[in-house]
Specification:
alpha/beta; single chain; five-stranded parallel beta sheet
């Protein structure tokens, strides 16, 4: 198993709560991680039809038969269990009695809110980060306080393309399997089945077109009308489907930052896929060579870097304080990490050669009179750190 950065945070809070929940997209490694962290717990999969029927028809008897200290995998499939879990943990407040996992975050979190509030701590696990794959430690807040790492091994441009195209789902890297075929099956067996069941979508072709339209907008401002008009569905339907994709852990909505800096700012959010392997599959990119010449390569690289930052915050048990900034004159910052009263802007560039124009958006944001920030960072695909003594240095992406 590839070690996950979320592990110490789960173990820390498992000592304080009687129930721990781990949610996230299918195949992100939830079951593997939970089994490793709680080896003495009894594992029960509620995907099993016989077990699920027993738990659903007689939840009290099921829990009594199984005893305490359980891992209940895909717990959202038996919502009847949740009131009885509440009753049991109220009787005895031992920590980490029940570990719940679920790939349908919407249903699991809905049941948690209704029955287990105050008794449960919830974490989200997404596909691997670059730092997990290479075995590096990671603190998502470290960028705000100091320059990125200088002790990491260089990564070739070809290896970057390979990582972007393969994506970061654990099974691909753990088993060294063909990623394109894996994503093909992933979409068929998980994305379309689970998400379509939630949305009660009957037209498979329509939903497939919707997924591809959303993929084409990764890294762009959200445009509900364009998606709806292209496939013939209403804007409220587009918004509902987008919301389910986000809740399922497949996409991330990056909000704009506009606090008091200007009344003429873009306030439309951006959309990003959490995993670039899935994104490349939906864009019909069948190889690394096709990726290199794809017209959306710049947006795909930006998606990769935004996703990396997004996942690192969740791996620290934190809600990502991430935004972008753009005004209507074209000045833009790709990513703004905003912690409390301070902000740290980052710009992502696919180019392997540095140009001073890369800093313009960050410099414009730093020059705002009410902005307390003093520094930012350009992340590009070159091999050397540049202007390290200035407020806006540039570093290779693998040092982030």
């Amino acid at each position: 198993m590839i070690p996950r950065h979320l592990s110490p945070y789960i173990l820390k809070y498992a000592k304080e709560y009687p129930i721990v929940a781990l949610v996230g997209p299918r195949q992100s490694g939830k079951t593997t991680l939970i089994k490793a962290l709680f080896p003495t717990h009894t594992y029960i999969s509620l995907e099993n039809l016989d077990i699920r029927q027993h738990a659903s028809e007689d939840p009290r008897g099921f829990l009594n038969d199984c005893g305490r200290y359980l891992i209940l995998d895909e717990a959202q499939r038996v919502p009847e269990l949740f009131p009885y879990l509440q009753e049991l943990v109220d009787q005895r407040q031992d920590p980490a009695q029940y570990i719940l996992t679920g790939s349908s975050q919407f249903l699991l979190l809905e049941n948690i809110t209704q029955s287990l509030a105050g008794r449960i701590v919830t974490f989200k696990l997404f596909p691997l980060t670059y730092t997990e794959l290479w075995g590096y430690p990671s603190d998502p807040f470290e960028l705000i306080y100091r320059l990125p790492h200088t002790d990491r091994s260089p990564v070739s441009q070809q290896s970057l393309y390979q990582l972007i195209w393969q994506g970061c789902y654990p099974r691909i890297h753990d088993k060294h399997i063909d990623s394109y075929k894996w994503y093909e099956n992933y979409v068929l067996t998980y994305v379309e089945r689970d998400v379509r069941n939630l949305l009660k979508v009957k037209n498979l072709r329509l939903f497939s077109l919707f997924l591809k339209m959303v993929a084409a907008q990764s890294g762009q401002l959200m445009n509900y009308a364009n998606i709806g008009n292209a496939i013939g569905i209403s804007i409220p339907t587009v918004k509902e489907w987008i919301s389910i994709l986000e809740t399922s852990g497949l996409i991330y909505i990056l909000p704009p930052y506009f606090e008091n800096f200007s009344k003429r700012l873009v306030k439309t959010p951006k959309i990003y896929f959490v995993d670039t392997g899935l994104l490349c599959h939906l864009l019909s990119i069948r190889s690394e060579e096709q990726l290199k010449v794809h017209p959306l390569l710049g947006s795909i690289f930006e998606t990769f870097m935004i996703s990396e930052c997004f996942k690192r915050f969740y791996n620290a048990g934190e809600i990502p304080p991430l935004y972008f900034w753009r005004d209507q004159t074209g000045n833009e910052v790709d990513l703004l990490i905003h912690s409390g009263l301070s902000g740290f802007p980052l710009e992502f560039k696919l180019a392997q050669s540095y140009h001073t124009d890369f800093r313009k958006g960050i410099q414009r944001w730093l020059a705002l009179s009410t902005n307390p920030a003093e520094s930012g960072l350009v992340v590009y695909c070159g091999d050397h750190s540049i202007n390290t003594q200035t407020p806006v240095p540039a570093v290779p992406w693998y040092l982030l």
